Amino acid sequence: MNERLFGYHGQYLLVDVGSQSATEHPIPREILSNFIGGAGLGTWLLCQRSPASLDPLSPAAPLAFVFSPLVGSPLTTSAKFAVMGKSPLTQRINDALCSSHFALDGKKTGYDAIVIVGRIAEPTCVVIDDGDVRFVDAMAFWGETIPASEAGLKQELGAGFRLAVIGPAGENQIPYATISHDNRHAGRGGLGAVMGAKNVKAIAVRGRKNVEFARPQDLVTYSRELSRKSFGDGTAKYRELGTIDNLLTFNRLGTLPTRNFQSGQFVAAKAFSVDQLARGYNKTRTSCAACTIGCEHIYAPKNASQGRSVRLEYENLFALGPLCGVSDPDVVMQASSFCDDYGLDTISAGVSIAFGMECVEKGLIQDDALRFGNGQVLLPTLQSIVQRNGVGEILALGTRAAAKEIGQGAEAFALHVKGLELPGYEPRALQTMALGFAVGARGADHNRSGAYEVDFSTKVDRLNAGAEAAEFAIQTENEAIIMDSLILCKFLRGVFDDRMASMAEMLSLTTGTEESLLSLHSKADKMITAKKWYNVKQGWTSEEDTLPDRFFEQPLQEGASRGAVLSREKLAALIRTYNLARGWTENGWLRGETDSEFEAIFR
Predict the structure, then answer these.
(1) Strand partners, 202
(2) Which of 135, 326, 414, 531 is the most exposed place for a label (fewest CB within 10 A)?
(3) SS (H, E, C) 126-182
(4) What domains lie within the chain, and their CATH numbers?
(5) Sign of the alpha-carbon dihedral angle for 87, 90, 92, 93
(6) Which residues contact 132 (CB under 8 A, 6 or more apart)?
């Protein structure tokens, strides 16, 4: 192995906003080699800097912005960063990824990560200018939307800065608040609330410190070929239609979560079809920073009085549309735009509102307007969530905490895992995905598992998963943690002939290490075990690895998934098989009882 590890600065910056100080800290070479960057390196940083049973909204809680060795390279989709911290929604580890120029300029400041701790007395923008750190008063922007704050701070700071910003949801510490840049969002898990608890309105970065890559000419050649492939069939769906095309497919299969997962089909699903939307909206397509795929589909109403343009994806459509029984695209787009501007995760917001609607349906909450199908209630409810008043006072807690406060059986239909609300995948009909949800360190998450890919293949019976589902869940989880550590867009998955082999080659070309399939799988195991270790230190118990009661109550009734049922016994058996295959105990505990034994994963 080469002495030098290319692609890195070899240090992170620790900013204490309470004392308004900053210190540089080296990152050992073996840590960079084993934890790579992004979600992996961020996990190591959190484990180093988080005491047990940490309050995620306390001054001591670290909030890490983490880059990777690929950032700044010519590799398509590599301009991404990870935001990591302990989630106020789940009380467990959380990594939220974002594509943007913030990653490129953040790494040019001369650090592989920027870690924020402390709490400052007044709203502040932390400015990191080529390694120089200063603290700028941001009181004038406190309470402003994300776009207004970003534009105003850019004007005040001057040319060349990129900003990661929170909105009023983060300021008010809503536990599913986002951190955003250029209308891209590090969305899930509520790290915007962690930033708000520190009184930090924004992080601004600007720099000129570039890293060197191990084999620059070979890297350029590889990047050109990867870009060429990214225009092929493997990404055609994302370029031409976007993920919103999933909605009708899921509806046909009976796996489109509707009315808080009470049904798998939505009678008005065609209102959200690509063809139907084209009748009322003008569509443009754009790309993230350093991306050749161009999957962003921006819809603008042909009648400007009906709202402004908004980026549409399957998840925001599902959560604010069918899940709430709402069929009006105008209303869903306005609600999605509100979430973007004020800094709310659209999935958790939609699931929380749908939960509230079912509470009203069952007589547990008194609110005549908050009912399935009433699209006119979406915007007022989102506003009340951000302001924490009216019905929003309880829905702002997220479904787990809200259900606990409401009681009366509400926990059975509070649709979360470890506190993180479910995305738009029906576990009864996608049973490898059900396992991925249950065991996920972050909670119910389709991006940290990817097991739905297996369910939609011929490898398993998605309606009746056998023991082999555990093997596939591990395989997709390993692939995901490597992609999230490099960091690469998940839409590249269909481009690679062999994903792990391709990622090993990219890592070798950038860092100079000699990677293999075996070494990359070993690193994936290490990083996933490190996430588990972090959660154990923060209070994890094996009872958390399960699904909501709703999915064990009755089979699905609609579409090609009619009759699908998932029993507690089957899921428990799959979880035991998964845990043992990971090398843990059958209940998911790490083997060994002392910190020194757990810390062996870092060596």
Answers:
(1) 125, 165
(2) 135
(3) EEEECCEEEEEECHHHCCCCHHHHHHHHHHHHCCCCEEEECCHHHHCCCCCECEEEC
(4) 11-206 (3.60.9.10), 242-421 (1.10.569.10), 432-602 (1.10.599.10)
(5) negative
(6) none
Mean pLDDT of 325-340: 96
Which tokens is 514 given?
Answer: 């000699």
DSSP for residue 548: -
CB-facing half-sphere around the CA of 586: CA atoms within 13 A? 6
pLDDT band at 490 (very low <50, low <70, confident <90, very high): confident
What residues pair up with 23 in beta bridges, in sequence order?
14
- Confidence band (pLDDT; 50, 70, 90) for 79? very high
Per-residue confidence (pLDDT) for residue 450, from 0 to 100? 86
- Residue of 431, 427, 426 lying closest to 464 (CA atoms): 431
Cis bond before residue 146 (omega within 30° of 0)? no
Kindly report the backbone phi and psi dihedral angles of residue 309, in degrees, each rounded to the nearest multiple of 5, phi listed first. Answer: -70, 150
Do 373 and 325 contact (CB within 8 A), yes or no?
A: yes
Per the CB < 8 A criterion, the answer to whether 509 and 216 are in contact is no
What pLDDT, on a 0 to 100 scale, did the predictor assign at position 2?
A: 44
- Unique residue bearing structure tokens 């506003």: 383
- The conformational region for residue 183 under phi > 0 = left, psi -120 to 50 = alpha, else beta, is left
**546 near 417, Cβ under 8 Å?**
yes
| 45-56 pLDDT per residue, tens | 999 999 999 999
How far is Cα of residue 373 from the mean position of the Cα atoms in its chain?
Answer: 28
Angle formed at CA 84 by CA 535 and CA 499, multiple of 5 degrees = 90
Q: What pLDDT, in 10s, does the model give residues 422-462?
A: 999 999 999 999 999 999 999 999 999 889 999 999 999 99
